[in-house]
Design goal:
alpha+beta, FAD/NAD(P)-binding domain, D-Amino Acid Oxidase, Chain A, domain 2, 2 domains, eight-stranded mixed beta sheet
Length: about 350
């Protein structure tokens, strides 16, 4: 019997469970290490298109820095600090305004200065580079394993198991595939792209589509900083052993969960390698590829709410491929909501009811 059961072992579920345990609650975390979070490119950047998202990432970075302060960088999976975005002059101006509004420290460089600072980049004379220094890059699978370790060290009960069914009530009963049953006063679903199908079994519809996005690892001979290329549309961060991880802005609809982690089409890889060669000096050698699911709402904002009819059951979904960036801050927020420290009604912009006209 637990006070809180958190279902889903991605970034949102882990951060929610960690925060609840920091408050002193009896918490069980149930799920599988193989999640969208562990399969993403591993970039945590402040350079996004919306002030609200930037503020969430700002909070996420603050939390991450606090969580990793007593550990080595390698143990946490951190490969880089700082991030640069290559943009045309119009985009650079828009980025500057957004970062100023979010009170983010940044610098901008013309092509000449950017080439001197990052000689491994091919920069055109009409391009501008925006640099933010607080951003993080991680080997995503290692970072998720690190957070699982942190959760265990904080005395979260971690069960690597599948939830077959949840019987909702005053006290919830979770039927697990291997270890039997778990009961909890409050259940929190952080299932990522699996949330839609899981809720539909209980007659709850949420307006999300699920896409499968690819990522790639290449061997390079340069030491780089994480960057996005808003001109040619790709994003990259340094990996271990002189590798680079990222991809182009490719995605395809994944109609069911069996497709979530399939390898991407070869044409995506070919396009991505071409984009990388347009921007990176030096040799490039393909190493590996993978995909992960992302769920997207009609307005691109996440859904954070309780299940209709149950004040003691909550869910989070629709992180739009920004789960690693926004998920920690949203997980902490979800923990505050579920534990009564914050009022759910204060988060109207995230609640499911904003889509009521769609049903």
């Amino acid at each position: 019997m637990y006070e809180f059961a958190v279902v889903g072992m991605g970034i949102a579920g882990l951060s929610t469970a960690i925060r609840l345990r920091e408050y002193g609650y009896n918490v069980v975390l149930i799920g599988d290490e193989k999640s969208a979070s562990a399969s993403c490119a591993g970039i945590i950047t402040l350079q996004l298109e919306d002030v609200k998202d930037i503020l969430l990432v700002k909070e996420s970075i603050k939390i991450i820095n606090n969580l990793i302060r007593d550990y080595s960088i390698d143990e946490a999976g951190v490969t880089c600090r700082g991030f640069i975005s290559i943009e045309d002059s119009i985009e650079a101006g828009e980025s500057a305004e957004l970062l100023k509004k979010a009170e983010v420290v940044f610098k901008q460089f013309d092509a000449k200065d950017a080439s001197q600072n990052w000689p491994w980049l091919k920069i055109s004379e009409d391009e501008i580079v925006t640099y933010t220094m607080d951003d993080l890059s991680v080997e995503a699978d290692q970072f998720i394993k690190f957070l699982i370790k942190v959760a265990r060290e904080k005395s979260v009960d971690v069960e690597k198991d599948w939830v077959k069914e949840i019987v909702l009530g005053e006290k919830h009963k979770l039927l697990l595939q291997q270890i039997g049953e778990v009961e909890a006063d409050v259940v929190i679903l952080c299932l990522g792209a699996c949330t839609r199908d899981f809720l539909s079994k209980n007659g709850i519809l949420i307006p999300v589509i699920v896409l499968r996005a690819p990522a790639y690892r290449f061997k390079i001979n340069e030491e780089i900083i994480a960057f996005s290329d808003e001109v040619y549309e790709s994003y990259w961060r340094p990996g271990v052993n002189r590798t680079i991880v990222g991809g182009g802005y490719h995605a395809e609809i994944a109609s069911d969960s069996s497709l979530f982690f399939q390898k991407p089409p070869k044409r995506f890889r070919n396009d991505t390698e071409k984009l990388l060669r347009l921007r990176l000096n030096g040799s490039i050698e393909f190493i590996e590829e993978w995909s992960g699911p992302i769920s997207i709402t009609p307005d691109l904002d996440p859904i954070l709410d309780n299940l209709p009819g149950y004040e003691n059951a909550f869910f989070l979904d629709g992180l739009r491929g920004y789960g690693l960036m926004r998920g920690i801050a949203l997980g902490y927020l979800l923990a505050d909501i579920a534990s009564g420290r914050k009022d759910l009604d204060s988060l109207e912009e995230y609640r499911l009811s904003r889509f009521s006209s769609l049903f």
